[in-house]
């Protein structure tokens, strides 16, 4: 039996409690500036005010994602990871942080390109799904997604066709069908 070895990201902090998985990224840090600059660059029609940036350190989901990433790399012999966006209501964000992206909730906002979890290359697109909470704040994830080999999706797809890993609208939307196919790296709370 071959064991899979993975290394935690170097920017992860040591938790002070076993349940601690969200860490506020300091505003003056290079990590904060790079992440927020990338987010704002794809937020074309909206000028967000950042409330906070949190790094998600869910080791269980990270490990599952890394095993899946290793499989993709061996099978495809190339890197097919995309840094994509997923906007959602605050209550959904809390569940995603704890339990990862769960396809059981797929289809809540439509299934135009398949019945999976939707991600976009532009934060601007995902903004419309980041519903305002009672404090006037919105939630958006920056997510590592294993795109793999993608095919044009449609609303009848419950799973990817054989030989494909994700579906797409052909340009800026990707749909993942495996819960370990994505890992939420950051949560941006903004107004």
Give structural notes:
The strands form two sheets. A five-stranded antiparallel β-sheet has the order 1-2-9-5-3. Strands 4-8-7-6 form a four-stranded mixed β-sheet. The mean pLDDT is 92. It has one domain (24-190): Phosphoenolpyruvate Carboxykinase, domain 3. The chain is globular and about 45 Å long. The longest helix is centred in the middle third of the chain and has 18 residues, at 59-76. It has four helices and nine strands. A hairpin with a 4-residue loop joins strand 7 (166-168) and strand 8. It has helices at residues 30-41, 59-76, 90-99, 123-127; strands at residues 22-24, 50-56, 81-88, 117-120, 138-146, 150-152, 166-168, 173-176, 182-190. The protein has 191 residues and is α+β, with helices and mostly antiparallel strands. Helix content is 24%, strand content 26%.
Brief descriptors of the model:
single chain; 191 residues; alpha+beta; five-stranded antiparallel beta sheet; four-stranded mixed beta sheet; 4 helices; 9 strands; 24% helix
Topology, pairings included?
Layout: E1 22-24, H1 30-41, E2 50-56, H2 59-76, E3 81-88, H3 90-99, E4 117-120, H4 123-127, E5 138-146, E6 150-152, E7 166-168, E8 173-176, E9 182-190
Parallel strand pairs: 6-7
Antiparallel strand pairs: 1-2, 2-9, 3-5, 4-8, 5-9, 7-8
């Amino acid at each position: 039996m071959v064991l899979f070895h993975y290394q935690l990201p170097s920017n992860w902090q040591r938790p002070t409690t076993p349940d601690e998985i969200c860490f506020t990224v300091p505003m003056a840090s290079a990590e904060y500036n790079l992440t927020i600059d990338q987010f704002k660059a794809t937020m074309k029609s909206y000028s967000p005010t950042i409330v906070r940036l949190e790094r998600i350190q869910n080791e269980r989901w990270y490990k599952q994602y890394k095993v899946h990433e290793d499989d993709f790399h061996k099978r495809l012999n190339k890197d097919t990871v995309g840094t994509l966006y997923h906007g959602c209501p605050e209550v959904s964000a809390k569940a995603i942080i704890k339990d990862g992206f769960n396809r059981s909730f797929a289809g809540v906002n439509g299934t135009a390109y398949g019945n999976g979890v939707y991600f976009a290359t532009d934060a601007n697109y995902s903004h419309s799904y980041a519903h305002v909470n009672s404090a006037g704040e919105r939630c958006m994830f920056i997510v590592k997604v294993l795109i793999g080999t993608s095919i044009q999706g449609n609303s009848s797809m419950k799973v990817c066709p054989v030989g494909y890993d994700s579906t797409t609208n052909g340009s800026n939307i990707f749909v993942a069908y495996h819960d370990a196919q994505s890992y939420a790296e950051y949560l941006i709370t903004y107004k």
